[in-house]
Each structure stands twice: as C-alpha cells, then as structure tokens.
Design a protein that fits this description.
Layout: H1 3-27, H2 31-34, H3 46-70, H4 72-78, E1 80-81, E2 84-85, H5 90-108, H6 113-131, H7 144-150, H8 155-164, H9 175-181, H10 186-193, H11 215-222, H12 226-234, H13 246-252, H14 257-267
Antiparallel strand pairs: 1-2
Length: 278
C-alpha cells in the first residue's frame, strides 16, 4: 500500500463531501429556523451538517499538510526560475493576488463578492419563509411552562389543550423533546399550543425572512392587528397599507428595518400614545 496514494485519494473524497456540505450550508437558513421545523437533508439536520463540515475541514488540512510533505520537491520547483529558489515568482505573485482579491473583496463586500453573499442570504431568507419562523430564537429549547408564559398563555390551558389532542408530555420537557416523543415538529406542536390562547405574540427580535412579507401576512402569521400599526405610523406622518412588504416600507420611509419593527411592536401594546400638537 502506497501512503501517497491514500493521501491523494482521501483528499479527493474529503473535497467532494466538503463541496456538498458547503453548498448545503450556503442555501439553508440558520438553526433557529431549521430546528423549528426539523429540517433535514440526506437524513442529517443543520447541526450535523455543520459538525460534518468542520471536522472534514480539519481532516482536509491534516491531509493537505501531509500531501505537501510528500510533494515538497515539485512544490519547490514551482518557486524556482532558472534553477534558483525565488519566492516571488510570477506564478506565486498571481496566486497571491487571486487569493488576496477574494479575501479583501469579501471583507469589504465589494462587487461581485457582495453579490455572491447576498444571493446566499436571499435564498436563506426565502427558505426561512417556507420553514416558518419560531416566535423567538430557539423557542424549541424552551420548557413548556416557560414557553406558555413567554407567549402570554396560561399553562393550565395549554396543558389541557395538549391532553385533549392526545399529546404525551412532561412539564419539565422542552418543546423539542415533546415534539420528538410525539412524532411531530416543534412548529406543529406550537400550532396546537397557541389554540389555548387568543393569539400569537410578535417575537422581540426581527424575524428572519420578514423583509419579503407584507404587513397582512405578518398579521396572519403572528395574530397581530396591523390596523393598530397603520394608525400608529400616522403619528409620525407615515401612511402605509397592509399589502406593503416590510422591506419596501422601510426603504420608502428611510427607516432602519429594526426601527420599523420596533414601531410595529410598540403599536401592539394598545396603550394611549402621545400625539404631538398640531
């Protein structure tokens, strides 16, 4: 058995798997979305793909160092001109320029590198819409009683609702654990839980994928009364409608998305708001 062949073949196989994992991680949203709906691809969830990519990356580096060791002589020849060792050869300078271009372009987010990143982010946001958003980050890791409190629901009402639906649960289990034991996703379990209360609550953080949703869609998804928001915006002299997307509304009014979302949250408090005098 030749060690060099094993190293070269292993490098090739690891590269193929890392190419697949890189593509998957480029397209799918973060774990607070994928864990909510138990997303998986080829039987692996988002965390498993992350772990696979990291460990294979480490193996790739080890094999690469080993490969360089066995091929050091031809590599040195690449750095020679007229049989003299010269580090800054034309080939090396071109390689250095190419790698530096991608690094600097990505860090500074200049075209076309920002275009590639934005495409990935856009696809992730689109996929997040399909998966559905939890009411807050990592909601599936919340204990059932705490989840009820955070959603302004009475725990006894929630417990009764689950019992009526034949859901087996324990008070000290997380939503993810309860969902797993009952062969369902946290998202499906949540749809049963919220029936015990009047409505869902808007999450405190700006949800992933909100930019492409209309105000009407937000109202339906979270049970929010968008009419309160429309009236609240009039205080600031801003007119809108329920069919406007969140992104378009923020851009047309020169508002940071977080500023606009906090206005949406404030409008749902249903308290008397100070109106400036005319």
């Amino acid at each position: 058995m030749k060690t060099q062949r094993v190293i070269s073949l292993s490098l090739g196989l690891v590269f193929i798997v890392m190419l697949v994992s890189s593509g998957i991680l480029y397209f799918i949203p973060d774990r607070r979305v994928t864990d909510w709906g138990f997303w998986s691809f080829l039987g692996l969830d988002k965390q498993q793909w992350d772990n696979l990519h990291i460990n294979l990356g480490i193996l790739f580096l080890i094999l690469l160092v080993w490969h360089i060791y066995y091929n050091w002589k031809p590599i040195k020849n690449y750095l020679k001109e007229k049989k003299k060792f010269i580090l800054l050869t034309r080939e090396f300078n071109l390689s250095l320029f190419l790698v530096s271009l991608f690094m600097v372009g990505t860090i500074t987010m200049t075209f076309p590198f920002n275009f590639l990143v934005n495409i990935g982010n856009g696809i992730k946001a689109f996929n997040a819409l399909d998966e559905g958003m939890p009411p807050f980050g990592y909601a599936e890791q919340t204990l059932l009683r705490d989840y009820s409190v955070l959603n302004h629901l009475d725990y006894d009402d929630v417990a009764k609702r689950l019992e009526d639906e034949g859901i087996v649960f324990k008070e000290k289990e997380t939503l993810k654990e309860i969902a797993t034991h009952n062969d369902m996703t946290p998202k499906m379990l949540n749809s049963i839980i919220v029936m015990a209360g009047n409505r869902l609550q808007l999450p405190s953080d700006l949800p992933v994928g909100i930019a492409h949703k209309t105000l009407h869609q937000l109202g339906e998804e979270y049970g929010a009364d968008i009419n309160y928001f429309i009236e609240y915006m009039k205080i600031y002299g801003i007119s809108t409608n329920a069919q406007a997307t969140f992104k378009k509304l923020a851009k047309s009014n020169h508002l940071h998305p977080a500023t606009l979302y906090n206005m949406l949250l404030a409008s749902q408090m249903k308290v008397n708001v100070f109106k400036p005098k005319d």
